[in-house]
Structure formats: C-alpha cells, structure tokens
Give the backbone structure.
Amino acid sequence: MTLLITGGDGTLGRELVKLYPRAVHPSHSDLDIGDRTTVDTFLRKIRPSMVIHCAALTGVRQCEDDRGLAWKVNVEGTKHLVQGCMTHSNDCYFVHISTACVFNGDRGDYVESDPPYPKNYYALTKLLAEAAVSHSGLKRWLVLRTNFVGREGWPYPKAFVDRYGTYLFADDVAKAIKEVTDKQMQGVLHVAGDRRFSMFELAKITTPQVQPMTLESYHGPPLTVDMTLRSERIPPFKMGLM
C-alpha cells in the first residue's frame, strides 16, 4: 500500500508521519497542490492507494486577507488531488481533513447531519473542499471534521474564554484517524473530544502563563464561536492530557 500524506510538515501531518513512517509525505517544494500539472505528475508516479489530505491554509485572518491564495490551496488544491487520484489511482481511499468551522458556531454540538454554514472565508473554502471530495465520483472517500491543537504550547499570548470546542491534541487526532481508516469508514465523520473546553482552558494545559481575552476585545474577520462537535456514528475520543 502506498499512502500519501499531504501537509506532512504541519501540526497534524507530523503526528501522522510518526504513525505511518513509510508514508510518502512530500514537502511543499516537492508537491505544490495548487499546481495541477505538478500534482498530476506526482500522482501518476506514486499511484497512491490511500491519501490523507491535511494540507491547507488555516489562518482565518490570512485567508481573509489573501483570498486568492486560500482558494488556490484549500479548494483548487483539493480538486487537483481528487482529479489526479481518479485519473491515476481510481480505487484510492481519499481521506480529507476538514474542520468544525464549517458550521456557523451559534449553538455548538454539531453532528454530521447538521447543515454547514460558514462564517468566514477560511470556513467557506474548507466547505467547498469537502464538496470537491464528496461530489467527485471517488469510489471511497472520508471527510473528517475535527478541531485540534499541537502540544508544543499555545502560539499566542492570550486565548479566548468565550470560544469553545471539543478539542483534541494533534496526536490524539492522528490516532483517531488511524482507528477510523483501519475500519475503512466512509462519508462524513466527526472526530471530537469528550469534553467541551474554552480556548483559554485548552491553552492553559500546555501554557499555564497564557492570558484570558474575550471576543469583545477582538477585531478581525468573523469567528466561529462554538465549535463543539458530536458524532452520530462513533463515540467521542478522550484527550490524552499532558
């Protein structure tokens, strides 16, 4: 089996590479998913039997400020991978990593059957990427929505006390991905933690000195406030605490 992991240098990708040391995990310079010809040539060469597509532009503000790049990476990049797989490896099991942010965030506790409603451009591009997978004609596909952070420490001096999610650490999500893909699950699936955290509560696990902030003091693109997920298909996962 040839497994391709895109975004292998990212927070989740690095954890997946640890679990799948034989996987092909090209750097951005080796595989620019925004370039259709490059993707086609790469997939023709390796003909993957499975793809875990993690590569994405994820910064909400960056996606808002550079919509062209966000579209190229998140939407077109996904389309290029899907089209390449259908051409060169049409029985490929395609796993697309999406986000809880495809939902509006007004109430939380979203399940797979709830209608998405993006609140910002980042979320819109991720929802359109989901559609590129689910409406592609791929024989086997999985859209996996989740919400995770790395264990390396909170990257900002402050964290919101009034934004919420059923967060997991990236290594927890990587293990969950292996568990559900070993079962060859298909369709749309939520991988969620078993506890609702505020961002501030989450940040304090790895970064005790982090300071609280509220959405009232935030200035920027609209944010998904309640990102909590629940699955109708599988039990929640337990966060592996420090």
Notes: The chain has one domain: 3-153+166-197. The chain has a mean pLDDT of 97. Residues 125 and 163 are 21 Å apart (CA to CA). The helical segments are 11-19, 36-46, 60-65, 67-88, 121-134, 170-182, 199-206.
